[in-house]
Amino acid sequence: MDGMDTAPPSLVALRSADAQHFDPARFHYLEVLSRRACAATGALQPILQTKLATALADYSQRMGQARGPRPPGAQAVPNNGLGALAELNHYIRHTTQQGHHHGPRPELKSVRGFREVWSKIAAIDHMDQAMVRGPENAGPLNPHMLVLRSLALMRQLSPDYLQRFLSHVDSLLWLDQENQKHTPAEAKPARRSRAKK
Fold it and tell me: Mean of the pLDDT values across residues 166-177?
């Protein structure tokens, strides 16, 4: 690669240790920064070299923390305030990997039982409210009364089915309301004036 002959020894050592696979994007940044530091002139060169040395130290530290404890006698790398972030990332990765192996935590039996009882009570409550709000003098083919009679029959035959049916209807109503909120109101077409005969 261009510029690797003038790269600092620490960057060459990282590449020979296959460190570019640890964080490929960050390693590419280090290589580009190294080339720019070598090509810079004047007052810009020491600034870029200092920035490169700091970035190399940070990369080495993060890679060392991810791979395990530092061997005895190895030189400590300055923290630069990024050690806590690296530790947090390592903790998140470790916890996530454990979660994949063990799967999601099982739901408590008491929570499941409470949820089932609460949904049954809610279904009964919805049904009672619907019956109270029914039309008083509706004919035999009134759609509102037909729905209420169907729900009452469902309640007698299978209360569990009624509970699931009402939950499904609630979900559909919620989706319909959300859709109406996010659908732009269509402009009414302008009336065409009648041509005078």
Answer: 83
